[in-house]
């Protein structure tokens, strides 16, 4: 029998989905997706079910690195570690906040990471090996530019003035929510255990409308991205100085929409001229989680 070849698993868990990638000897041996994996917004059996689905069919792992939204405190990291350890009992498990993976994904090209997924966060590493983070307050008090906020705006608009929206929007709502009746939408949002995840389903509809240059969708997107750009500018000014010429890297699903990237870039240029996008291609935080897992495997 030859030498043991380790299997490492990288996890990216957020407010909408939990994604797992298993790698052995440089080859991807597992890819899985589960439901929301943020331990602050999803609890108990539902949280376990999300991680179980992501790990379904995964080989036995030697190392699991879980980069998780909501895991900024020891108690939340312990919750995730317990769940992952129950699914991979022989593995060494490391749990870190999701922005660590985001930073790893953009660090080759950028000085600042701006995450716009279910929520929104701006982060940079500090001089002590820790992290400086702005945002992450959730869709009720913050998360401007996030999928949850964009979806919330879309659904509010639809409930208020459904006739303003083209017919294809109703079809998309039926696909994403099971119905285009706004009464139904209100009901599932109030009864659902993970409203941010539900709201996020509407974000691609709003950005698609903005990509088509629908005036109201464009206005909503510009307003949200201006607020996210303001948070980015304030973060950089507070930590690095107003005149620092820095590159901004984009991470998260919202940035797949060209209209979102354009709106953010225009707002950032207006508010903080020394900041610029490293490029307009969003990075995948799961790639950052895998990079971190490889490094931890080498040093462990």
From TrEMBL:
Domain ATPase BadF/BadG/BcrA/BcrD type: 11-274
Disordered as annotated region, ranges: 276-300
Biased composition (Basic and acidic residues): 277-300
SUPFAM superfamilies per the UniProt record, alphabetical: Actin-like ATPase domain
Gene3D superfamilies: 3.30.420.40
Superkingdom of the organism of origin: Bacteria
Protein name listed in UniProt: ATPase BadF/BadG/BcrA/BcrD type domain-containing protein
């Amino acid at each position: 029998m030859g030498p043991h070849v380790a299997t490492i698993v990288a996890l990216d868990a957020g407010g909408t989905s939990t994604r797992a990638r298993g790698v052995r000897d440089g080859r991807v041996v597992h890819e899985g997706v589960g439901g929301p994996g943020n331990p602050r917004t999803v609890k108990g059996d539902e949280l376990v079910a999300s991680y179980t689905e992501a790990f379904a069919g995964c080989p036995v792992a030697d190392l699991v690195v879980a980069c998780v939204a909501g895991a900024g405190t020891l108690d939340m990291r312990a919750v995730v570690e317990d769940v992952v350890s129950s699914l991979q009992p022989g593995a060494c498990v490391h749990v870190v906040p999701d922005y660590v993976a985001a930073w790893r994904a953009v660090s080759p090209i950028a000085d600042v990471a701006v995450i716009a997924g279910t929520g929104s966060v701006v982060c940079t590493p500090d001089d002590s090996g820790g992290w400086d983070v702005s945002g992450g307050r959730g869709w009720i008090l913050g998360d401007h530019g996030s999928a949850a906020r964009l979806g919330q705006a879309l659904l509010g608009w639809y409930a208020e003035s459904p006739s303003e929206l083209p017919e294809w929007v109703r079809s998309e709502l039926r696909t994403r929510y099971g119905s285009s009746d706004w009464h139904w939408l209100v009901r599932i949002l109030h009864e659902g255990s993970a409203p941010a995840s539900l709201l996020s389903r509407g974000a691609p509809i709003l950005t698609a409308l903005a990509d088509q240059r629908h005036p109201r969708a464009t206005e909503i997107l510009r307003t949200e991205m201006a607020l996210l750009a303001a948070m980015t500018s304030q973060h950089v000014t507070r930590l690095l100085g107003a005149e620092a010429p820095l590159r901004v890297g984009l991470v998260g699903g919202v940035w797949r929409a060209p209209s979102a990237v354009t709106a953010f870039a225009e707002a950032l240029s207006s508010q903080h001229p020394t900041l610029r996008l490293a490029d307009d291609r969003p990075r995948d935080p799961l790639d950052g989680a895998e990079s971190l897992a490889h490094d931890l495997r080498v040093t462990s």
